[in-house]
Fold this protein.
Amino acid sequence: MRATARRTTPNTFTHRVDVRHHQLTVDEPLEDGGDDEGVSPQELLAASLASCTAVTIEMYAKRKGWDLGPVEVQCDYQPAERGCVTTFRVRLRLPSTCTQEQAEKLRVIAAKCPVHRTLEGEVMFDDRIEIVTPAAT
């Protein structure tokens, strides 16, 4: 998987992010010096966890033949500060037609979504710098 971020306007924090054939706009809020043209990278992280969790439980329910109806996943995210851990609060909002047994199984499956597993696992970084010649305009 690859995501590439490119600044869209000089002197701003607004970036276009390309992932496969899709594009996202990422920026910082006004109060952090951005133009608020898109979600912040931190918000994108919470959105990744929320959406991955939703897709994972919906795929599981579909395989089981469960018609859950509308499902909502909320993710509140508190980034780590010095001496504290990063906290993600994930809430599955399931329709009242969902049985207690289904809800419990979906809770277990939600914690197995790929983004959840990535965040709770050990992470390695391979950071590199490449000096490139700017493209002619």
Notes: The chain has two domains: 1-38, 40-122. DSSP finds three helices and five strands in the chain. The radius of gyration is 19 Å.
